[in-house]
UniProtKB/TrEMBL annotation:
Protein source organism: Staphylothermus marinus (strain ATCC 43588 / DSM 3639 / JCM 9404 / F1)
Residue ranges of the TM segments: 6-25, 37-55, 61-80, 92-114, 120-139, 151-172, 178-197, 209-229
All residue ranges annotated as the EamA domain in the record: 6-139, 149-280
Keyword Nucleotide-binding: no
Pfam families the UniProt entry points to: EamA
InterPro entries assigned to the protein according to its UniProt record, in alphabetical order: EamA_dom (IPR000620), EmrE-like (IPR037185)
Name by which UniProt lists this protein: EamA domain-containing protein
Keywords: Membrane, Transmembrane, Transmembrane helix
Amino acid sequence: MQMEVIGVLSALTASSIWSLSPGLISRYGKGVDAITLNMLRSLHAVFVLFFIFLLTINDRWFVPEGILIVYISAFFGPLLGDTLYIHSIKHIGGGNAVSISYTYIFFAQLYSYLLYGEQLRIQLILGSFIAIIGVYLVYSGQRNDIKIIGFLAALGAALSWGMGATLSKLALNYGDPVTIALLRNLSTTISLLPITYNSVKKVFLDKEVQITAFITGGIGFGIGMTLFLTAINTIGVSATVLATSLTPVLGRILAKYIAGEKPSPKTYLGTIITSTGIFIGLYF
């Protein structure tokens, strides 16, 4: 019971931390491209996670044979998925992007069915249809503000995150959550650094960019992802991603106050319906 409580609290805390990202990136990430900002986020996460790793080194373990699956999970998660997510925020706003991207939960369940043979429940199918209605309302509620490239980027993030979350379950067979999170972000940083080196130099002393990267990366990736993996390790994938159904609603609200976004009642309704679909699909 105690481990279950720790798992639930970890998932809820991660969800709350991630709710800050859409608004912060929407407001303060305008002066840097998506790939560069994502590299900086991963770099900050590496520093935070390495510090945690050193403080708790006696609790850390890793089986070297798992390095490939860790890298693949990193590619679909923080590398590709989050780059697309940032790109979508820049085109359609944080509130819209988070509402669409967090349908990754359904893709995670579909991938789990295909890879692990997990059962696809009728509630999951029902929740998926409800969430699709919500996504459509988000798309149509502010049609003038929705650009197709941003919508496709958000959908791509959902597809990619779904695979990343599914493979994270497998990666946790080879190491503890902190070590896996550290290796995932280290892989992302090393992969993106060669193609962002020149652009990073231009924004390296930009306080707004670095603070945004630290909060959404150092805290979001570093602490948030560690809590997320801890929850997966203790209460499983389905129960963990259930908690992230809060993120679209919180992200929408915080994006309004942090970035000054002005969503229509239709997009608010779409966000709530999407989160309701996620809740129904994973809880009932």
